[in-house]
Every structure is written in structure tokens, then in C-alpha cells.
Write a structure and sequence with these properties.
Shape of chain A: globular
Number of domains of chain A: 1
Radius of gyration of chain A: 20 Å
Oligomer: homodimer
Number of helices of chain A: 18
Largest sheet of chain A: 2 strands, antiparallel
CATH architecture of chain A: Orthogonal Bundle
Strand content of chain A: under 5%
Largest interface: A-B, 41 and 41 residues
Helix content of chain A: over 70%
CATH topology of chain A: Farnesyl Diphosphate Synthase
Low-confidence stretches of chain A: 1-13
Strand order of the largest sheet of chain A: 1-2
Number of strands of chain A: 2
Mean pLDDT of chain A: 91
Structural class of chain A: mainly alpha
CATH class of chain A: Mainly Alpha
Chain lengths: 343, 343
């Protein structure tokens, strides 16, 4: 499959279906999700004006709230009738938000979802410290749910995320990165939080062990699929729909799966190209286009998307052990369409 | 009191007494403290080599382990016989360590305790991400102690610390900072962790409410005294004994108490000096010496140290509500000598 075909496949007739699946989840979790937003706003309160200001910008840049919805839906799918899942869902989103602030500093990112990043507006120092604040608030919220099992799940996940971020940094510009190492990076930095999100939801609902595990694994496989698509989208070139610059991963020399595949298939000329652009970090303005062309020619992009599809399928399979209800069905649909998203 | 006298007062005949008081606490907490070190080393384990490497450097740069000893001593002073205080003490030290890593990035510090800072050796990105990892590990350790009250104490403290760091950043270079604002900064960024350290120790021991509160307040007052001395030492000019560059606060335009006092007492000429060096950040090589001379002339440094003494006295008074035993006595001695330390 060439680049155009692969990209078409991502932006297929079912282009808007992921959006619909997210919308369905939003409708289902309706009131709960509103309370999550209130918890998040409440968490950012501080007499130090910069904190609510910067946190507000982060919330405005928004995002789809996929992670907190995972917690809410998993809890409800398991028959939970309480209110503590709202705190956990808010904590999950805050951990994600704190990670984004630090990520953007580390990557020197300029745009996120079409808005200037906090590090551009307020500065790196401010982003690091407010990120720490938000991270602490996430822990306070978890503790307020007063469930040690869930605390264990979420605190362990946050350690794994940070470990994944360090591993990613250590593998940057390194052409010898294999599929396994790449998988370890995205399992840690992305899938661990997805897994903790659904796992915490099932755990707070006191679901039977098999069901709890099914939700945990669903989150992990979905998270891997999600990140695989994210990494593919960075080479798909639709800047407007992404709300961020495409080609960022390439410019930063990140060893994502398209590059790993392309390197496995590279001829001498292409190898030289990757060595210069990724390993040595010497890039010219036309290099990103050339990178995309190689990814198309070697089918590296198409195969990355196919890989995402396999993980989405595994996520869906996991839910066969879950109670069959509208929440579970919405999660199945989310996984099905997650590999068709364009943002 | 002039600069020389004030400094002499800090480096008084009882110069080594703080060291002796720390040593006494170390002897008393002996086995427990060894276990804390083991927990800390264990926490930094990771297959990502950079993590134990950087965390090991942080541990080697060492420090006196005052905070974890506070937790251990408070717990034992309240008659605690279990083992969970070791986890809490390690968590307290890890929160402190993570904060140092991020602080050094934010301040652009080059030296800490005579060693190059992690940001100088490995880079800012690495320090931010490994700091996040260590912070997460701190939470995992707290959770492992399985005590919701203590979790609440420590997670709330970590939020307050981050808030204090942001407030400090927001007040940098701002000549209108008052004593109250300065106090708010150090209460948050330093005293909150001291207070949580002793509070958590008393709480895990299930001390009566009045005793628990006494230990919490002891920690807070001691933390304020400790930071007041820290801020005074930055103008005392004994680089070798501090293991860090003196004058760092001045160069960064930090509004610490000596400057707040000096500004209250400044004539027109001095005001112009502080405006240029602190507010506008325009500094020449001879400015630090001139700053020290003004602090001496106006007695701003001496009065800062006197202020520290008052807080140390309040810390000691708090412990009159605590059980009278060798642990409590060691904590009293620590507070007494904390205002005589030179590093």
C-alpha cells in the first residue's frame, strides 16, 4: 500500500466514525463526565494565579477526554452505582494533562490541538512546575476515593509512564531500535494509562477477577492501537485536522514504528538517508516529504496501521469476558473505530 | 549586627553542633535509616539504565537525610513499633529528591553539594522525566504503607510544595514582595514537607490528636527556620562549606528575606541598586559583594537569622505536648542547632 492509499485508509469512508464512537461514549457517560470536568476545574484552584490560568489553557486545548471516559464506562459496565469513579476518572485525566505539559517541554513542541503550547505561552519553568502541581492534585483525588487497590493501580501506572518517557528519550535518534523496544515505549508511555483507566473503573466496581483483568487488558491493547495510529498520523501530513504540526516525530528523531519498519526494509541509499536525518539529526526542508515517500514505497506506514488494527482487534476480543451492556458495546465500538481516526 | 558578625553568629562556636544533632538523630534511627536507604535504592531500579544512574547521582550528592529522619523519629517518639514508617520516610526523601531535580532545571543550577547537578550532566529533559519517575515511586511507596490518613497528609503536601514553587517563580524579580508573601513561599516549598514528614510519623503511630498536631506544627516551624537559614547562607559567602555557589539566589533575582528586609530599609541609592540587580536582572561582577555589604549595613542578614531563631523556638515549644523520650529530645536539639548550621 502506498502513502496515499494508507492515508486514505485512515481517512476512509468511516472517517467520522471514531468521532461518532467518542460521541456515543460521551452521551452514555453524560452526567458523570460533567462531574469529571468540575473535579478537574476544582483541582486547578489556587491562590497562585498562574496555576488556574495555565491549567485552564490545557483544559481549553481540550482533547477528547477519552481516558476519563474509559474509567467511567468501565465502572458502569461493571454495574458500579457509586460516585468515586468520577474522582478516579478526573485523576486519570490530570495525570495525562501533567504528562502533556512535561512532554511539550521535553519535545520543545509549539502547538497542541491548534493552540500554542503552555511552554510557548508561559515558559518551560512554568510548565514543569504547574505539571508537578497537577500531578500532585491527581494523587489527592485518587486518595479521596479511599480505595487502596485502585491507588495501587494508578500509582504504579504513573511510574510506568515516566519510565516510558525516559526510555523514549534514550532511544531517540537511535537507528538500532527494534519493534520490541518501540512496543515497550508505547506500552509504558501510553498504554499503561489506558490500562489503568479501565482497570481502575472495573476495580472500583469490584468486578470479578476475570472481568477486571479483561478491562485492564482491553485498555492496554486499545492504548497500543491508539499510539500506533498517533505515530502513523505524524507522517500523514494533514496538519489542519491534527491541530499540530505533522512531521514533529521526524524532526525530533523519534524512533516510531513507521521508521523502524522502513529501516528494516531500507536499501543502502535509504539507510544513508535515515542515518543523516534521524541518527545525525541533520535535516533539510525537503527531507520530511522524502521520508513520507520512503514510508509509502516500503509500505512502512501501511504496515504500521495494520499493526494498530491487530491491537484494536485484541482489545475487542478481551471484552468478550465483560458483561454485555451498552457501556461495553460503546467500548467495543471505540476500539473498532480507533484505527480510523484522523485526530 | 554587621555581615561579619551575623556570619560569625551562624558560624559560631556551636558551628558543629547542628552536625552533632544530625548525627545523634542518625544514631537513634540507625537501622530504620538503613532500611530507608535500601527502599530508596530499590525504588530507582529500572531496566532503563538512565534512571538508576541519575537517581544514584542524586543519592550520592547525598544530603543529610534530615526529612526521612524526621518521619522515623516522630513515629518512634510516639511509640510506633511497626515497619511502615520506613516506607513513608523513603517516600518523603523521594519527594524531596524529585523536587530538587526539577528545581535545578528551573533555576539552571550548576552545583549541588559540591557535585555537578543532574541537569548539567544528563540534561534538562532527562532531569524532568526522571524527576517524574522518582515522584511516582514516592507515591507507590506511600500506597504500600496502606494507610489512608497518611496518604492524605503526604499527597496534600506534595501539591502544596508545587504550589510554593510556582509562587516563588511568580515572585522572582518582584521588589514588592512582602514578608508575608515570602513566608507563604517558604511555608509551601519547604515547611510543608517538613510538616508532612513529622505529621506522617505521628499519624502512622496513631498518636493522640494533640500529639499528632504538635509533631505537624514542629515540622512546619522547623522547616521555616531551616529555609530562613538556607536563604541567609546564600549571602554568607562560604562556598566550600555549602558545596554550592553562594549568591545563586541573588543572581536569579529571588526575593528572599534578606532582600525583603533590605528593601524595607533602603535609601534612594540602595533602591536603585536593587531595582537594577533584582528587578531588571542587570548584574555586574562586583554586585554580589555590594549586595552583601548592604545586607550587613542594614542588618537585613542579622534580622533574617533572628527570625529563623524565633521559628526554631516555636518548633521546640510545640514539642512540649509530645512524649518526653530520647527521640523527642533529639528533635528538640535538632531545632536548637538548626539555626547554627553552615550547610
Amino acid at each position: 500500500m502506498g502513502l496515499a492509499a494508507a492515508t486514505n485508509d485512515v481517512k476512509s469512508a468511516s472517517d467520522g466514525e471514531f468521532r461518532l464512537a467518542v460521541g456515543a461514549l460521551r452521551t452514555l457517560t453524560g452526567e458523570d463526565l460533567k462531574k469529571v470536568d468540575q473535579e478537574i476545574t476544582h483541582s486547578a484552584r489556587s491562590s497562585v494565579g498562574l496555576i488556574p490560568e495555565l491549567a485552564g489553557h490545557l483544559a481549553a486545548a481540550g482533547g477528547k477526554r477519552v481516558r476519563p471516559m474509559l474509567t467511567l464506562a468501565a465502572a458502569r459496565a461493571c454495574g458500579y452505582c457509586g460516585e468515586d469513579h468520577v474522582k478516579l476518572a478526573a485523576a486519570v485525566e490530570l495525570i495525562h494533562g501533567a504528562t502533556l505539559l512535561h512532554d511539550d517541554v521535553v519535545d520543545g513542541s509549539l502547538l497542541r490541538r491548534g493552540l500554542k503550547t503552555a511552554n510557548v505561552i508561559w515558559g518551560n519553568k512554568e510548565s514543569v512546575l504547574v505539571g508537578d502541581f497537577i500531578f500532585s492534585r491527581a494523587f489527592e483525588l485518587m486518595v479521596a476515593a479511599r480505595n487502596l487497590k485502585v491507588l495501587q493501580i494508578l500509582s504504579a501506572a504513573s511510574g510506568v509512564i515516566a519510565e516510558g518517557e525516559v526510555l523514549q528519550l534514550a532511544t531517540q535518534n537511535n537507528l538500532s531500535v527494534t519493534f520490541d523496544t518501540y512496543l515497550a515505549v508505547i506500552e509504558s508511555k501510553t498504554a499503561a494509562l489506558f490500562a489503568a483507566a479501565t482497570h481502575a473503573g472495573a476495580a472500583i466496581a469490584e468486578a470479578p477477577a476475570g472481568v477486571e483483568l479483561a478491562f485492564k487488558h482491553y485498555g492496554r491493547e486499545l492504548g497500543i492501537a491508539y499510539q500506533l495510529i498517533d505515530d502513523a498520523l505524524d507522517y500523514s501530513g494533514f496538519e489542519a485536522s491534527l491541530g499540530k504540526r505533522t512531521g514533529d516525530d521526524f524532526r525530533e528523531g523519534k524512533m516510531t514504528l513507521p521508521i523502524v519498519y522502513a529501516l528494516e526494509r531500507a536499501d543502502a541509499e535509504e539507510r544513508k538517508f535515515w542515518k543523516r536525518t534521524i541518527s545525525d539529526g541533520v535535516q533539510r526542508s525537503e527531507d520530511f516529504e522524502e521520508a513520507c515517500a520512503i514510508l509509502a514505497r516500503t509500505n512502512a506506514l501501511g504496515d504500521s496501521i495494520a499493526c494498530a488494527r491487530r491491537y484494536a482487534r485484541r482489545a475487542i476480543d478481551e471484552l468478550s469476558a465483560a458483561p454485555d451492556n451498552e457501556f461495553t458495546q460503546a467500548l467495543v465500538w471505540l476500539a473498532e473505530t480507533s484505527v480510523q481516526r484522523v485526530s
